[in-house]
Amino acid sequence: MSTAPQTALEKGALVGSGKFLLRDVSLPAAVLHERPLLNNISWMQGFAERHGARLAPHGKTTMTPRLFHRQLEAGAWGITLATATQCVAAFEHGVTRLLMANQLVGAANMSLVADLIERGAEFYCLVDGVENARALNTFFAQRGLRLQVMIELGVEGGRCGIRNDVELDTLLAALAELPALSLTGIEGYEGIIGGQDLIAGVRAYADRLIDTVRRLKRRNALALPKPLITASGSKWFDLIAEAFDLADLRDECTPLLRPGCYVVHDHKLYADAMEDVKTRHPDLQGELMPALEVFAHVQSLPEPGLAIIALGKRDIGCDPDLPMPLRWYSEGKPPRDVRDWTVRNLMDQHLYLSVPAKTDLAVGDVLSFGTSHPCLTFDKWRQVLLVDDALNVVETLATRF
Length: 401
Hints:
Elements: H1 21-24, E1 29-33, H2 34-50, E2 54-55, H3 65-73, E3 79-81, H4 84-92, E4 97-103, H5 107-118, E5 122-127, H6 130-142, E6 147-153, H7 165-175, E7 181-188, H8 198-218, E8 228-231, H9 237-246, E9 254-257, H10 269-280, E10 292-303, E11 306-309, E12 324-329, E13 336-337, E14 342-346, E15 351-354, E16 366-370, H11 375-378, E17 383-387, E18 393-398
Parallel strand pairs: 1-17, 2-9, 3-4, 4-5, 5-6, 6-7, 7-8, 8-9
Antiparallel strand pairs: 1-10, 10-11, 10-16, 11-15, 12-13, 12-16, 14-15, 17-18
């Protein structure tokens, strides 16, 4: 009997020499469908370009360097990240233009970023307060470096960002006295805007961004001849793009859109948002398509009407919605649509699925599930599988969370 140690495998690993998802992969597995993935990358890149904007996809969604490179190869300006360590991960995999859409706080994080700049990274981050700006200036001056920063415009009750013109003027006055910082533009995030009329609120916020960057240009407060102006998550990207386009910013600024979830889309939250985009723009050609699914085995059929699936919170996101059953795969039969089945509950490693009382579902069958908000599924995997239409694994893609 062999006593050779087993090689440690990540979950969702290919086992043996085969490539067929349903037979040769240790399920559960996070799966990207190649055709919709490529559609989404091309579609959003084209959408941005038609509106005179550049695309800086938010990499925190997937933290998958191979996807970053596909987005860059399609024409993306750079990659957006949320933390210093995410920026390091992207840079280590060849991404050299990094927009950290967040404040840079803490000496250890500043040190990571300084190292990146010294190694050739083109790096940008956000500031929204004098105290943070002064701390950044002190640190980067000691390192003999200049840090490119953008002012974040926030909203009342939202997350970070200055709230009004008084705070803007105070921060501008401070930045003018901080030689290690270069003010390169204005940043915002419209996804946290509330109120009775969300569309009007998003449009007003976009107008505020545009007005602010133009005022700063007139005051010669910006270090770049074409300063950056950036916003846009994956829900309201059309409204931000439309506002930037109507303002005709191409010759005076570099407009950047930063959606992240679009690359794999989803089956609920952003699927609904896409329907809203299509309603607002009935002449729009094409659309985003869900590319991410999680596949898992039926583990137990303990009572009529209930199936236990070998899938849990460690494998698939459940915020803001529970996973959605999509298709049922049983050997020798074509895939069957099970979107009318219902997930009852999700535990660490088990999913409770309501199924018809009379069904030939069997232990060992495979079900695929869709997600709502893909970010919270990707971060549960160290690798995801890219598959073709026949469910053959084309590539194993490592994540870097």
